[in-house]
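User: I'm new to structure prediction. If I give you an amino acid sequence, what do you actually give back? Let's try with this one:
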Amino acid sequence: MDVSSIAAAASANALGRVQAEASLMVLKKAMDLQSQSALQLLQAVPAPVQVPDVGGSLGGVVDTWV
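Assistant: Good question. You get back a string of structure tokens that encode the predicted 3D arrangement of the chain. For your 66 residues, that looks like this:
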């Protein structure tokens, strides 16, 4: 094995590491953006409305006969 092939292998190894680190950084950024978007969607959901109690008979039975 000569010096040029060793240098080429080292260069290819370094390039592979740089590409892997760049891919990881892009993945982390995408996950951060996705979590921010999900948080905004959750914050946009309105709070549930409290229905006043009308004696407990209204809405207590659901007719499922078809």
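You can read the tokens as a compact description of the fold. Here is one thing that stands out. Residues 3-44 form the longest helix (42 residues).
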